[in-house]
Amino acid sequence: MRDQDPSPADADRRLSTREAAELLGVKPETVYAYVSRGLLSSRRAAGGRGSTFATEEVAALARRNRREGSGSGGPGGELSVRTRLTLIDTDRYYFRGVDAVELATRYTYEEVAEWLWTGRFRPGAAFAAPEASVAVARRAVDALPEHTTPTDRLRVATIAAATADPLRFDLSDEAVLGTARTLIPTLVAALPPVRPGHRDTGPLAHRLWARLTGRQADEAELRVLDTALALLVDHDLAASTLAVRVAASARAHAYAAVSAGLGVLEGPLHGAASGLAHKLLLEVLDRGSAAPVIAEELRAGRRVPGLGHRLYAGEDPRARALFSLLEEIPHTAPALAAARDIVATTARRTPLHANVDLALAVLTVSCAMPATAGETVFAVARTAGWIAHALEEYGERPLRMRPSGLYTGPKPPRPLPEQDTDGAERPR
Fold first, then answer.
1. Cα separation, 347 vs 341, whole angstroms
2. pTM for this entry
3. In terms of Cα–Cα distance, which of 328, 338, 378 is closest to 362?
């Protein structure tokens, strides 16, 4: 009887935890989470075993969940989905109520990911990849053509890792968290290292660095990369995150949900945007001034990459945090100056501020990384956020991400089509 209101005869009967979960379309653990958040009240069952819930109260919450969670419109008619993970407010953003920039600059990527997943701080959190998972992912990635993009490699590695995990269909919180802690390092390990002989030890940022550049990193550079990963963990319902939640709503396992996110990430308006900013920055450095480069972008009718963000009126707080760290590294000075020139030159026409793609471009250009490096950093970082959203969605009513289509085609009924002698179809 899932998602149906109780009959009047049942209204006075109290529900067990299992029955309440069935009516709400969630897991039993989520029922207790509703109690802790004040959305439901509970009473101990007779004999002290388990809890009971008022039928009408549960039914009212189920109606509210259906109303708010089934593709309801937000401001301006946009899709609105309840989440307890990330809040974006004016020029700041928060992970579970804590300032995300402060978290990212004080703690490691792994520690921030754990906070996003569980709401608990795990000092010294470290991710390790099983040898079997890494082996199958590397074989799959090594079979790809040489021109394959990093996101293609990550998507193939994700699917390969899934085949090595026979328990991937277990969607319990602990199982999904176990997947998260092994999948992310597996993805990094599956990417071919630029520097031969590199050993995969230490924090994830150290292992990823060897996949991005052949340069030996110092502590300041590794700190920038680790902070970038932590800053990019999540950013509310970006396009790729929404794709992940749709997959999780259909109860796809965590690997499949991450694969859905990686598919969307490749768009030039999402993960690939940092590569465009990288190329722009290189051209400004080559020509010595942003003015002629920006003029050509505008003349061609293209938006200037690395500038502006629809969620921030001012500077992207992620960019601000990375620029501050990059300023402490002497050899980033030319790229930083070029980035400032881009912002100042564009501001003569429109007051756009730097976003995180431009900050990533300063890092990738200064450290001899390819244009695709920013997309790789983005994808690895965001995998943690995608899994956090999948975890949250697994606790919601299944298939709630099912909006209704607004049909604008020919009015039915129409006659069946006939086939012309040339093979084309025509209506009868």
1. 10
2. 0.81
3. 338
